Amino acid sequence: MNSLKEMLENDERFAKNKVSDEELQAWREKVEREDQERVRQALFNNRARIYKRDSVWGTSGEQTFTFQKWNPKVQPNQKLAHDIWKKSAEITKRMFDSNFNVLFYGEAGTGKTAMVLAIIDALKQHSNKLSMFVSVMDLRELIMYDFNDNEAAIKIKTLSDQCVKLMC
Question: Is the pTM of this model over 0.70?
Answer without folding.
Answer: no
